[in-house]
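[INFO] parsing input record for Winged helix-turn-helix transcriptional regulator
[DEBUG] input buffer:
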Amino acid sequence: MSSTPPLPPELTVLAETFRLLGDPTRLRILLFCLEAPRSVGDIAASLDLSQSLVSHHLRLLRGARLVRGNRQAKQIFYELADKHVSDMLVDMTHHVDEESAED
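[DEBUG] output buffer:
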């Protein structure tokens, strides 16, 4: 990111991205996809969510370019969109862990 502040349209996109990340279910989905690409069924079963709810959240995350889907035969496997997203999630998880250790 450049050293100049983002312009208003970029700020709007950034704020919307953080709003999407503010949902615990979406965060759980992203963190679950951190290690490897996952199918909707795998995400739903592992996180004890309905497939329709997972699909809804993945659609929003895909729209925000936080995940991408790769079709393999009849299934789509979702993974984090890029290293920026995975690094941010890992860094924020460590940040929260550090704050918890200080208490």
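[INFO] The mean pLDDT is 93.
[INFO] shutting down worker
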